[in-house]
Amino acid sequence: MKNTPIDFDIVKQTLKEAGIKDVSTASIREIVHVVSIIEKLTGEKYIRMEMGVPGLPTPEIGIKAEINALNSGVASIYAKLDGIPELKNEVSRFVKQFLDIDVDAGYCMPTVGATQGAMALFMVANRTSKDRNGTLFIDPGFPVQKQQCKALGHSYGSFDVYDYRGNKLHDKLESVLKEGNYSSILYSNPNNPSWICFTDKELKIIGELATKYDVIVIEDLAYFGMDFRKDFSKPGETPYQPTVAKYTDNWTMLISSSKVFSYAGQRIGMAVISPTIFNRKYPDLKRYYSSDSFGHSFVFGGLYSLSAGVCHSAQFGLTAMLKASNDGNYNFKEVLIEYGERAKKMKKLFIDNGFKIVYDKDEDKPIADGFYFTFSYPGMSGSELTEKLIYYGISAISLKITGSLREEGLRACMSQIKPFQFKVLEHRLKEFNKNN
Ligand SMILES: Cc1ncc(COP(=O)(O)O)c(C=O)c1O
Question: Residues 83-93: pLDDT tens digits?
């Protein structure tokens, strides 16, 4: 083990000093921290696959619009809580052009990233009934969202969808919803971390059961349009990004701008709420908010108490990028496909060196090449693999923290890998395979 690409003693000592007993339960930011220290101490660059930071530049059009907005003086003025009209209008158009869902601008709100959108939706959806208060996560998933439920004092449950794809999802989901504990269901699609994408059949199952058991779906579209097997980037044309909104009125959705427009630093996303839910009255909401209306509680109870609105200039930046996409003047797929190309090459390097893809199929089809993939090394636990790879200059996170039962698995993120690093990655994976 001592003959590793990164100095063995430095790695060992740094892990010890960081006080991380089991890297598989370390948070993403903890791994980032430790690996950054090792890079500094050894002067060696890691193949950094642990964090989902966008690795592409923000479209010029967004940056220019934001600068113009700042120059026009918006920084000194509070933006409206539920968003500037221009942005609300473009979100509504975006949802029509790329999801084929009709929803007026009034139901479209900016949030401080999809992260805040989720928090605000939990704050309202999970308080609609005094007899239920939790979220069912269809896992694997984004750990922060469970942290948010915890911070709010909401209960949550989850199941790993790995064994419940296609028709099998129906009975599993129904068996859980039947218990009547949950107010909401959350999943991301495409999924972080596994990059599985629900098929229309699966979304129909989720939608119909949400209606049957009167549960609100929070559909997290953080990776909007990034199932590159299809082209969802042509406004107003099929195919459209699949959505549960086609199959139930009990939908809410989160659309992040972080990945689709590489706008993560500006912390702006969108929450869109179905008119049925937005206008519905839930008397139990009055325990927390001044109104029994879902929409009113979301804006004046949720968004107001969390941040009193969203960065004014970023709203103009996002408006411009949405408008360009809606008008067919900016094609996000042409830019984002870079992640898919990296994934294809990297998956091959892993497979050629003895690794396996863990979540490998959507029903009978191989998963898409996109922002993430999951991998394992036969005979090795996820925690052993996460730690060993650090000695080989490769950092990734264990699936353990994502609610996955595939404990042998790790998540690889494509965003920070530059094509010139493929040779280094290949060499390190070869060494790893040889020594293990
Ligand atoms: C599944 C999922 N949901 C939500 C988010 C948060 O997105 P935002 O940057 O818009 O807050 C992320 C970010 O990585 C994510 O992976």
Answer: 999 999 999 99
- Report which DSSP code applies to 233: -
| Class of the CATH-defined domain 8-56+335-435 | alpha beta
Give backbone dihedrals phi and psi of 315, rounded to 5 degrees, phi first: -65, -35
Helix (H), strand (E) at residue 376 = strand 372-376
Owner of token pair 């519905």: 280
Which residue out of 142, 197, 416 has the highest number of ligand 1 atoms within 8 Å of its CB and is therefore the one to mutate? 142
Least confident of 7-21, 179-193, 323-337: 7-21
Q: 222 CA distance to ligand 1 centroid (A)?
A: 5
Q: Mean per-residue pLDDT for 74-95?
A: 98
Is 115 a pocket residue for ligand 1 (Cβ < 6 Å)? yes
Q: The domain at 76-326 falls in which architecture?
A: 3-Layer(aba) Sandwich (3.40)
Distance CA 196, CA 116 (A): 24
Find out whether the beta carbon of 274 lies less than 6 Å from any atom of ligand 1.
no
Q: Where are the domains of the chain?
A: 8-56+335-435, 76-326
**Segment 256-282 mean pLDDT:** 98
